[in-house]
Amino acid sequence: MPDMANVCLDALIQKGFEIAAVIPPPSSNPTSRGFVEYAKSFNLEVFEYDGNPNNSDIIKKIAAKKADIGVICSFDKLLGKDFLKTTKHGYINCHPSLLPMYRGANPYYHIINNGESLSGVTLHFANEHFDSGNIIAQRNIILDKNETIGTLFNRSNFLIADMLCEVLDKFQQTGKIDSKPQEKGDFIKAPKISGTTKLDLNQKCTQLDKITRASNPFYTVYLNFRGAPIKIFCLKYKEEAHSLDTGVITKVEKDTLEITAQDGYIYPKCMQCGSWGIFDAESFIDIFRPTVGENFN
User: Fold this and answer.
1) Rounded to two decimals, what is the model's pTM?
2) Is there a contact between 248 and 240 (Cβ–Cβ < 8 Å)?
3) 290 burial class (0-12, 13-18, 19+ CB within 10 angstroms)?
4) Which of 64, 68, 85, 107 could tie 190 with a disulfide, CB 3.0–4.6 Å?
5) What is the CATH code of the structural domain delimited by 3-174?
6) Which of 53, 42, 61 is closest to 77 using CA atoms?
7) CATH 3.10.25.10 fits 196-288, yes or no
8) Is residue 1's pLDDT more than 70?
9) Contact 102, 110 (CB under 8 A)
10) What are the φ and ψ backbone dihedral angles of 283, each rounded to 5 degrees?
């Protein structure tokens, strides 16, 4: 997702930093075109390419700019030794977690799904391994009880942009950037996810809530109703012992659809049916007329 790159690029432009060139994702990446057009709207030089950015042509173009330092945002390609030498002081990578916790492609999702109450952002020097270079700066983010991947994504992006501008401003004044090695040890990782998850109603309500918030709005969590997948964007829940099977509709009122889970009940609040129609609970009930005793599975 290039959104972090867009936010950081805009911040650097607004603060008046000189930008030698912009390197987008590979042209085969569906996000590339939009980011290229965004950069060119500021009359910035853009080095477009196919495949791997570690090719000699791109490396020569960047090195010819003789830039002082580079910035990496939302880039999922591992950069090699020759690439990282194309600027005088290396590259700063922007990572949305408190490294060394949650190294990997998707910290936002795993942080929320694991029930963390504290997250943050990190600027670190890039090396030949993902998310392991010396730490330059970090800031904390206290997670709200209703935090979603979307809200954390936005908060992290703007915080990173502010922190990046502060670090680069100090660099312009002093000509150096202080950093320290990351702690050694076995820390929680943040690998890519499949993007589509069927809710397991045999899990506890709190976990169903976390995985739903961890997915909204970028990924899909769903249940089947009358043989069709129903994407669930958000839900409420109540923990309460019962002896019913899971997935049973136990209450249908004006704006309340109650469904049994392992240790209580969930209440979907925003749903999408197949590829059409996004409904709140009241609209879903009005259109589909679910009845007590029917099942979500």
Assistant:
1) 0.94
2) no
3) middle
4) 107
5) 3.40.50.170
6) 53
7) yes
8) no
9) yes
10) -65, -40
